[in-house]
Amino acid sequence: MTSLADKIAPDNIKKLIPYQSARRIGGSGRLWLNANELEQPLHFSDQQNAYHRYPDFLPQDIARAYQDYCNTQKPVLAVRGADEAIDLLVRTFCQPGKSRIAICSPTYAMYEFCANSLDVETIDVPLLMPNFSLDVDGVVRAAKSANLVFLCSPNNPTGQMLDQQDVLSVLEQTQDQALIVIDQAYIEFELEESVVSLIDQYPNLVVIRTLSKAFGLAAVRCGFIISDTSVMDYLNRIVPPYPMPDSSAEIVLDALSPEGLAKMERSTDKLITTKNWFVDQIQSLSWIEKVYPSSTNFVLIRTRPNVDLFNYLLKAGIVTRNQSHEPSLKHCVRITIGSQESMQEVATIMSRFANPV
Ligand SMILES: Cc1ncc(COP(=O)(O)O)c(C=O)c1O
Predict the structure, then answer these.
(1) What interhelical angle do 246-255 and 60-70 show, nearest 10?
(2) Among 291, 286, 287, 284, which residue's Cα sits nearest to residue 334?
(3) Same domain, yes or no, for 98 and 204?
(4) Distance between CA 4 and CA 148 in Å, rounded?
(5) Which atom of ligand 1 lies closest to the CA of 85?
(6) CATH number of the domain within which 251 lies
(7) Domain count along the chain
(8) Are residues 243 and 264 in the same domain?
């Protein structure tokens, strides 16, 4: 049976024979002299771990640990951050100069950036104001001419979950049209909203995850793609031969152990408490128009016009993200939730911003 992935994958990807990396061809060798590695490690640091051999082609222990964490049997691909996942999906399923992706702005900028870098056109179906809800009909229409639709839930930079019914409606109506990629980089802050289990029902759903946010491992560079086998078969053809450095893989396995997961959950609970406290402190300030509800580790704040919160905080040494370049986010600043001490300081500084205009 022809899958949607078969239908949209470009011919060059269909013809591609996966690169035969040293770790794909193996067997029960005694002396491994097939990959031009140094046979004995030099141990530059006092760590005893050796890094002279290329890592596993696809670290299966990490994939299994992440499947357990997500409670899924669907194939999982570990990549270098969710950003690599986005790039890989566009490169696998889009053809330069021909294919399109769809996005719903305001959203994470890398979807359009990756498409631009590969000469793939982006169709924007903006989220609907005032609540940044999904334009379901618009997305379904765009999916007719796009190979990939990127939805971000919880969404960066608005901080909100997309409505589950809207997402289901999109999945239902696009099954033979486009792959629906749902980026759940921030899902640990709203874990019951995971969409991974929907892949069974909707093989056109692809989920992106990361350890950069709630797990606090941004420097380790680990993200995941979870999808139906029909989609994963194509991704496996194009994924770089050694996607995960051993040094990162060791840390990832610790993070996904029962102890690691418990630690992440405690930290997430604490962060949510700090976020709620911070929002309580600032939301009644006279020059704030709105603090948007957040299912993430950041809050989006809309100020009155002519209030330059971003530069006020910058002068105080606090670096936040100005969102005013987005047409629907004029006078909006995104603030990451840090430690209780940091947020106490930010709240105090904001409360002194008495006559900003
Ligand atoms: C929605 C979203 N997706 C993906 C990423 C990239 O994550 P990673 O660090 O895993 O590449 C980010 C980072 O800010 C993000 O906000």
Answers:
(1) 30
(2) 291
(3) yes
(4) 11
(5) 11
(6) 3.40.640.10
(7) 2
(8) no
CA 39/CA 31 separation, integer angstroms: 9
Position 226, amino acid? I
**Site residues for ligand 1, CB cut-off 6 Å:** 81-83, 108, 152, 156, 183, 185, 210, 212, 218, 223
Are 102 and 143 in contact by the 8 Å Cβ rule? The answer is yes
Distance CA 94, CA 100 (A): 7
What's the Cα-to-Cα distance from 243 to each of 25, 233, 346, rounded to whole Å?
Answer: 16, 16, 39
Check whether residue 75 and residue 23 sit in a common domain.
Answer: yes
Ligand 1 pocket test: pick from 84, 156, 182 the residue with the most ligand atoms within 8 Å of its Cβ. Answer: 156
Position 52 in a domain: yes
Are 230 and 296 in a shared domain? Answer: no
| Residue 169: its H or E element | helix 164-173
Within the chain, which residues score under 70 in pLDDT? Answer: 23-27, 355-357
Specify the pLDDT at position 185: 98
Q: Are 91 and 117 in contact (CB under 8 A)?
A: no
Backbone angles phi, psi at 223, to 5 degrees: -130, 175
**Shortest-distance atom of ligand 1 to CA 83:** 11
Structural domain for 202, as ranges: 4-256
Residue 128 lies in a domain: yes
Last residue in a domain, options 208, 241, 256: 256
Tell me, what's the pLDDT at 27?
A: 67
Most informative mutation of 77, 212, 221, 294 for ligand 1 (most atoms within 8 A of CB): 212
Which of 256, 284, 319 is the last residue in one of the domains?
256
Record the tokens describing residue 130, joined without a space. 């005032």
The confidence score (pLDDT) of residue 26 equals 61
- Name every residue whose Cβ is closer than 8 Å to that of residue 76 and which is 6 or more positions away in sequence: 63, 66, 67, 70, 224, 225, 226
Tokens linked to 290? 């709105």
* Amino acid making up residue 192: E
